[in-house]
Recover the amino acids of this structure.
């Protein structure tokens, strides 16, 4: 089952069920007006939404054309956004840039931070920066949305709590990362609004692409039409989503609608940009720059600038974007 | 105007208007079923709620008895909870304990962290800890709830965005603070569910107790019936709430319903526990312990343990609790 949120005058938008081929959609208003409402009552809402999806796919309901440009983030605002760090090669590559104190690689327990969840960015909304000198980077990630999770859950409980899957762009202002981390209170100013892909999907509906609590699909990142990377999110994910949920709930329960990020997707390799059509590359610019420093003695790929365009999406076996594309221009604050 | 949220089967509870003497309340359901709804549409909702409050206070509406024990947090869940650090003497006293890297006192820009906002604790709900050896501490703070704030607001815009005021207990697991900060990603496991007082109030309705973007009232902290502190929240608050909102919105806008904490209330003095009836004392145990270490060479006041009871409330000139009391027992997770 695929779900999306159309933009509306209401801050939570309007929940729609999307056809399996992502061409049509139908309002889910009679079941739940918005996604958080469905997550609050998932046991009742999910079967009704599945039924609506089946009718839409069978043609019993005509629906309306599905236009990703009309979507907001699936949850335009959420009660919790926790970003983990599942990929060790990402940490390894950017550790020096981040000024992190962890002398050993964090391979025993995943790092995670509490992100801002009050106003996410729509898939095609501009990324608005207060100035053009903050080393804007994008970080392509897989995320899950959970049901309620008790404190200290088992891995099984954590895995069973995964309701929906999609991808996001954890927008980062690299120049502020060091400041944030050195003040000792963690990420804050360096992490403005996160962007989400138009469509969320149940794990079951992803077939073999979802297994072992991981999404086994390449996530493609293009900057101004140039391929920067297409690492496979199922490769090198040392901590899976069950691990991340268990860790997040170590000292507290998690409410329904909690979004957990798997961290910047990163596959081990020794490539640098530009990559070939079948290359792996990078899901964030900071990693590309680190690889360049190692190979050439200096970083060559610039961070994103005002006017740049960044497109991110998970790619299915048929070559199509599974959750729809994030496609954003960088703009300066008025 | 005073507002509160009664517990109900719905996750957001039920919004009520509370009489000025806090003895009666009336459902605000016909205006907004829950507080976030009112904040989403404040320009329309606030005058209607004020009108209802006036009718309740005039006796034109009988209402029902107001029982703080039936309340949830005013926002049982919120889209954003940002905790600042406005009181320099708190930072000064606990800096060594926290392992913070800031060599100089953070007097130029306030520190802040993104807190968990998915499931706050009701004023009289137990504080549930996963084990009894995590150095449980309470931190009494003033908080404001804001309307929407644009990125890079002026101090005037920030101040005007303050919709409601109350106090909270920013529950902390001191033993995990160092872990959280040393991993470089900031507070996470050390900050379980925050507790809020039963009542929120508009700044205007606080009279002279609210001025200069600060709450000028003592906030009393009692552990097992013993007075630990009653520092005045208007004293020593180096960064006021306008400063904190401006800082929070440096690289992003803030959505309506954002909660901003002023940091652990702390007044400069050289007292140690026990304090006299007119003493100042401390709003968190860590500060009391630091003062003891300085005076006696070792900390004497233990952190909170399972079975302890912690009560916190802001005290008005008439000696009554302004926002109602937080009164919680510490319990071990089942």
């Amino acid at each position: 089952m695929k779900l999306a949120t159309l933009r509306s005058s209401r801050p939570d938008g309007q929940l729609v069920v999307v056809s399996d081929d992502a061409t049509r959609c139908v309002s889910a208003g009679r079941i739940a007006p918005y996604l958080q409402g469905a997550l609050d009552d998932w046991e009742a809402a999910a079967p009704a939404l599945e039924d609506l999806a089946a009718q839409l796919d069978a043609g019993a309901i005509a629906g309306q054309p599905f236009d990703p440009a009309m979507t907001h983030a699936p949850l335009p605002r959420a009660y919790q956004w926790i970003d983990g760090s599942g990929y060790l090669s990402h940490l390894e590559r950017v550790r020096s840039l981040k000024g992190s104190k962890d002398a050993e690689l964090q391979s025993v327990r995943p790092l995670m931070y509490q992100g801002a969840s009050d106003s996410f960015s729509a898939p095609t909304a501009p990324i608005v920066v207060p100035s053009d000198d903050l080393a804007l980077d994008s970080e392509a990630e897989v995320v899950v949305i959970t049901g309620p999770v008790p404190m200290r859950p088992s891995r099984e409980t954590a895995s069973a709590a995964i309701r929906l899957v999609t991808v996001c762009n954890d927008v980062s202002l690299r120049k502020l990362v060091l400041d944030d981390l050195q003040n000792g209170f963690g990420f804050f100013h360096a992490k403005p609004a996160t962007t989400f892909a138009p469509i969320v999907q149940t794990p079951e509906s992803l077939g073999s692409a979802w297994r072992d609590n991981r999404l086994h699909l390449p996530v493609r990142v293009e900057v101004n039409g140039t391929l920067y990377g297409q690492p496979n999110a199922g490769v090198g994910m040392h901590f899976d989503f069950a691990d991340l949920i268990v860790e997040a709930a170590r000292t507290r329960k998690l409410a329904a609608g909690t979004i957990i990020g798997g961290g910047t997707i990163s596959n081990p390799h020794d490539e640098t940009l530009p990559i070939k059509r079948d290359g792996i590359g990078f899901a964030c610019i900071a990693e590309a720059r680190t690889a360049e420093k190692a190979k050439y003695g200096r970083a060559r790929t610039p961070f994103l600038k005002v006017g740049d365009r960044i497109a991110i999406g998970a790619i299915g076996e048929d070559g199509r974007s599974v959750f729809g594309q994030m496609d954003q221009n960088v703009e300066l604050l008025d």
Notes: The longest helix of chain A spans residues 42-58.
